[in-house]
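Deliverable D5.2: sample structural annotation.
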Amino acid sequence: MARYCAAGHAESSRANVIRRRLSGRVRAGLAGLVGVLIAVLVMPGAWAEGVPVPDEDPFYVAPSGLEANVNGAVLNSRPISVLGLGLPVAGWQLQYRSTDSAGGAVADVATVMTPLLPWLGGGGRPLLSYQVAEDSLGTRCAPSFALRGGRDFSIVNTALDIPFLTAMLLRGWAVVVSDYEGPQSRFFDGVNSGRGVLDGVRAARSFAPVGITADSPIGAWGYSGGAFATLWAMQQRASYAPELWFSGVAAGGVPADIAAISRKVDGGIQAGLAVLMVVAFARIDPDSGLAEDLNDRGRELLVRESAACGADMVLRHLNRQLDEYSDTPNLLWHPQFQAATDRQELGAVAPDMPLYMYHSNADDVIPVGGFTALVHRYCALGANISVVHSGIPGHNPAAAVESIGAMNYLGDRFAGIPAAAGCTG
């Protein structure tokens, strides 16, 4: 026994030396990812030339016989240079089969990344499903376009998540980022988004070059719009993808009480988000009657913004009020709008894996009341949640600061450390 322990210690020491040497080289290269955000804004020439938007890229075209494939099946794949740069990260894009909220077969796309560093931790390399806040009405806003090196203002939401993606890769985790809104860019369609996330995980797990093994722990994380998709996926896991088990899940800045969010931003600097929601619900819920409530300007809006990104709309609708586009006074308080948002609210089912949920008490975009009510619903249904009501003021500042706790929580779950039972915090 003593001889075995000594050999094990020597093996561990050699592994640590190798890890430090490799880690130093790889970490230096990965740290350059953080600088990419600056390149997005001031040095666009550093990005890949000639990356077509998804609607003009044959890779996104659904193959014939799509329906015959199982959910999560990889339909097509291609290697990519992540962000169009020579980074020490292996990257692929996978086209995979999913099922939308109407039950139809769709071809979604996910970007999978893994650091060029052997995983020397216990078990298999962890796989983290990270949901960017896609917030879009068109596929040019999809994260796959940005992560392949697309250069357009539409990449701003993905670019903002580069520091978080960097931190995950520095920990040695493989990461899958799905275009969970699907080819029709169905913003705030919970069932559609959740299925897109789960099938993206299925595709990444089955794609041999990523190196995910049977003992690789799986996790998920999203903030804001990404939290919406993450939690919808977790609510559907048991019924839609029962073979997947998530060791831990983090969700912050959660869009709960969607109608309250739209009312908060209406008429302010984020008013474009309210416009985005109305256009999105008119499209994904045509029986809601919202389109009929709009005036001529509103109907023109539906056409003009049909492929817009949330960032586009924030700039174009600064300080606008939704009633400028409606024949119905106080549209955001109208029962038809409330009913459309209610159909997409989280909380009907409690996720059955350990959760870490966080939200700023002074969020300037998403009122904390909806988050608190959602946590209470989940807890009443038996969820296990570590809850953080953050004192960091503001939606984006809280995203940055509280990411540390979320990352550490996921790291502990990947290491096999049990989460506290019940609702704590």
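Annotation notes: Residues 1-27, 40-47 have pLDDT under 50 and may be disordered. The beta strands are 74-81, 89-99, 105-115, 127-131, 174-178, 218-223, 248-252, 355-360, 385-390, 423-424.
The annotation will be released with the project's public dataset once the embargo ends.
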